[in-house]
Fold this sequence. Notes:
Layout: H1 15-22, H2 33-64, H3 67-94, H4 97-120, H5 126-155, H6 160-188, H7 191-201, H8 203-211, H9 229-238, H10 241-256, H11 260-271, H12 275-298, H13 305-323, H14 328-356, H15 362-375, H16 377-391, H17 393-418, E1 421-425, H18 427-433, E2 438-442, E3 466-467, E4 473-475
Antiparallel strand pairs: 1-2, 3-4
Helix pairs in contact: 2-3, 2-5, 2-6, 2-7, 2-8, 3-5, 3-15, 4-5, 4-7, 4-8, 5-15, 6-7, 6-12, 6-14, 10-14, 10-15, 10-17, 11-12, 11-17, 12-14, 13-14, 13-17, 16-17
Amino acid sequence: MSSGPGAESAPAPNHSDNRTTRHNSMFSSLRIRNYRLFAMGQMVSNTGTWMQRIAQDWLVFTLTGSATAVGLTVALQFLPMLLFGLYGGVLADRCAKRRLLLLTQSAMGMTGLVLAVLTLSGHVQVWHVYATAFALGMITVVDNPTRQTFVSEMVGPGQLRNAVSLNSANFQSARLIGPAVAGVLITSVGSGWAFLLNGLSFLAPIGGLLLMRTAELHTTERAPRAKGQLREGLRYVRGRPELLWPIILVGAIGTFGFNFPIWLTAFTDHVFDRGAGGYSLLNVLMAAGSVAGALLAARRNTSRMRLMVGAAALFGVLQMTAALAPTYWLFAALMLPIGVMGLTFNVTANSGVQLASDPAMRGRVMSLYMMVFVGGTPIGGPIMGWVTDTYGARIGFLSGGVLSLASALLVGLALARAAGLRPRLDVRAARREGRPMLSFVARELPVAGTAPGAAHPTAARGDGAQADDTGRPALAPAGRA
C-alpha cells in the first residue's frame, strides 16, 4: 500500500527483491512467479498482435488497392491514444489493474475473432476493418497504461527496471516472429487465419492473469473517484522536472526520430535500389538491435537521467551517420546500434518515469507518456514524409537525427539546471589528468541567507540530490541521475 507522496512511497521490495537488486541478472525478474506468467502470456499475445498488423494492412490493400486506405487504418488505430489517452490513465489509477486487464485483454481478443469470422466467411468489407481498428485503439487507451503500471505491482520497485527491459525484449522478439508467421499464413491460407490465431493468442495472457497469486502482488492504493483527476495528473507532472523533461524528450524523439518506415522504404527504393528483400533485412537488423538493447538494459540496476539523455543523443548521431552512409551494407550495419540506442533510451525513460511517480498517480503519468510517444506519430510522420519526398531520403533521415540530437541536448541542459548544476568545459584538466572534458558542477547562486558566491543549497546535500519542499529527493544531478 502507498504510504505517502513521492517515488519512495512505492511498495517496499521484499528480501528477494533486495537481493536481486544487489546482484542483478539479465532475467532476474522472471524469478517472480506472477511476472513469469505475465511474460509468457505477453510473448504469445505480442506475436499474434504482430501477425494481425501485417494481415490487416495486407487485407485493406487487397480490398482497396490504396496505400492511403492502409494509412487511414493505422491512423484509426492510433488516433484514440492521442485523443483519449489521458482518460485511460485515470481509469488505471481508479480500478484494480488485474481485473481491468482481464477485461481489456478479452476485448482485444474479440476484435481479432470478429475480423476472422468476417474474413473467413467472405463477408469482410473495408469499413469492417476500419471499425475493428478503431475499436482496438479505444481498448488500447485503457489497456496500455494499466498494463504498464501493473508491472510494478507484480515485481515491486526493486525489479521494475529489469521487468520493463524484458517487456521490451519480449515485444521486439515477437516483432521478429509475428510478421514472418503472418507472411506464411497469408500466402498459404489467407489473412483470416492470422486474425483467428491472434484472437486465440489472448487466451495466454488471460490465463496468466487468472493463475496469478494475488497475495503476492505489490498492490497500491487506488485513487478515489473525484472531479479534476485529469488536471491533477497534468499538474503533478508539470511540477516535477524528473517527470516533465523525460516525457518531453520522449515526445520529441517519438514524433521526429522514430519514422523508420518512411526512411527505410525511401532508402531501399530510391537510394540503394534493393527491393523488398533489402527492406526486410533492414527491419530485421533494427529489431535484432532493439532486442539486444533491451537485454542489455535488463542488466542495469539503475535508470539514470545521464544514460537516458546520452542514449538519445547517440541515437541522433547514429541516424545522422546512417543518412550519409555511402553503401547499403554500411547503412544496414548501422541499423543494429540504432536499434540498441533507441531501446536503451526508451527503456531508461520508461522505468525512470515509473519509479519517480507516486503509485496513486502512475497510471495518469504513464498515459501521458504513451500519449506523447505514440500520439506523435500522426504528427511527425506526415512532416518527415514531406521532407523526405521533397528533399530526398538522406535529408529526411538527417533531419530526424538532428532533431533527436538537439532535443537530447536541450533536455539534458534543462535537467542539469533543475538539479542546480551547470556545464563546465575544462580542456586543461582533460589533457593533464585524464578527466572528462565536459562535466557538471554546482551553480553558484546567491540566495536568501547565503553570501554571494556560496554554492547553491541544493548542491550541498550529502547525496548530491536536489530536495523539494517535502524533503524527498526530487532530481539527481547529472552525475548521479
